[in-house]
Amino acid sequence: MSKTWKIYSLTLISFLIGTSESVISGILDKISEDVGVSVSAAGQLITVFSLAYAIGTPILMAITGRMERRKLLLYAMVVFTISNLISMVLPSYGYFIAARIIMALGAGVAFVTSLTIASKLAEPGKQASALATVLTGFTAALIIGIPLGRLISTTYNWKSVFGGVGVLGLFALIIIAFAIPRYDGEASIPLREQLVLLKSPKIATALSVTFFWVVGYSIPYTYIAPYLLQVTSISEKLLSIALLAFGVTSLIGSKLGGFSTDRWGVQRTLTVGLLVHVVALVFISFSASNILIVFPLLMLWSFATWSSGPTLQYNLITLAPSASGILLSLNTSISHLGMAVGASTGGLIVAKVSLSSITWIGALSVLLAAVVVMLWHKIPNREQTAVEKPLA
To answer: For residue 337, what pLDDT is reported?
Structure first.
């Protein structure tokens, strides 16, 4: 197997992780009905996954820094695969919560290690392309994994979705064992030194934009299936199509966001993308009863949301090129922390206010991110001191 195909094989891992993490949003109503909990309680399955991922991944990566990379990837995927498989037979909601925590820890280590191995497999000067290839697995999860998960849960049951991810995980383990070469571990940078980067005002502000952006996205997206079914009164068949359309436009938005960043810069791309994100959510709030209007607005929301992703990552790399790996790792943790906060906040909104309120409340968080971006030029530029010190 060529190095190129080995890199593509790692995409399967990110696809499985992305599907396992996000598919809950597409089958939330099924889980709620089956285990006998409210929709808001079922949404906390995303909260616990994201929280465990955000907190556990940097700690585990620091602990396992010197471990041989293929072995670490195998161990992490074993944990991830087993936790998905046993989810099929767990008797209660509480046990599934515990499985989601273990699943998240395995997923976080497997994903970060996959990126590390991909960068080592890549030819000189092509590391960024290799990382982008692995990351397409997450996009594929939005386009294929989540709509397919909805279809499987409707045809069979929601637990079959995780069983399917587990079976594919076994296939991924075989590929890792026979196709991925061994790579020595590296001396990891202690968490204390990684957090020193947050002393930079611009880096801290950039990460705060990621946080508010993800919170504003996560509040409505976590409950997208019950929202469309109950508020918009969409049919089951159209729901799967809507989730597929959401995934496709997310890919288009991501590609255009990268192009726009190269052509018009970070601040302009983020400002426009975030403001369109806000407008889409607000318009969805006022048009929820009309499926002919909601459907294109849903696609506009997805497009605007994911146009900001590559821009935020590129901005972090340019702020501290010598610490790009650490910053991307911190950004991933902040993203999952935002997912956890968004899912839990959305649960409170659904339980205490109304399901129909999640879109405009999510819009407020995204608007806050847009305001921060528009004020970027007033932030002091002292990132160099914060970055160079821990890396010296």
So the answer is: 93
Give the model's confidence band at 191: pLDDT under 50 very low, under 70 low, under 90 confident, else very high. low
Q: What number is the average pLDDT over the span 79-98?
A: 93
Distance CA 351, CA 357 (A): 11
Q: What is the DSSP string of 246-302?
A: HHHHHHHHHHHHHHHHHHH-HHHHHHHHHHHHHHHHHHHHHSTT-HHHHHHHHHHHH
Q: Where in the chain is the domain with CATH 1.20.1250.20?
A: 1-187, 189-392
Residue 388's pLDDT band, with cuts at 50, 70 and 90, is very low
DSSP class per residue in 128-170:
HHHHHHHHHHHHHIIIIIHHHHHHHHHHS-THHHHHHHHHHHH
Give domain 1-187's CATH architecture. Answer: Up-down Bundle (1.20)
CA distance 202 to 205: 5
- How many C-beta neighbours within 10 Å does residue 19 have? 26
pTM of the model: 0.82
Q: What pLDDT, on the 0 to 100 scale, is given for residue 392?
A: 32
Query: In angstroms, what CA-CA distances link 136 with 105, 139, 141, 254?
Result: 21, 5, 9, 10
189-392: in CATH 1.20.1250.20: yes
User: 10 Å Cβ neighbour count for 185?
Assistant: 15
Note the pLDDT of residue 386: 43
Tokens of 337: 């922390």
Both tokens assigned to 322: 């010598």
Tokens linked to 7: 């890199």
Residue 385 — very low, low, confident or very high, per pLDDT cuts 50/70/90?
very low
3-state SS class at 379:
coil
Q: Is the pLDDT of residue 194 over 50?
A: yes
Interhelix angle for 3-26 vs 39-63, to 10°?
150
What size, in residues, is the chain? 392
Instruction: Report DSSP letters for 47-96, one per residue.
Output: HHHHHHHHHHHHHHHHHTTTS-HHHHHHHHHHHHHHHHHHTTT--SHHHH
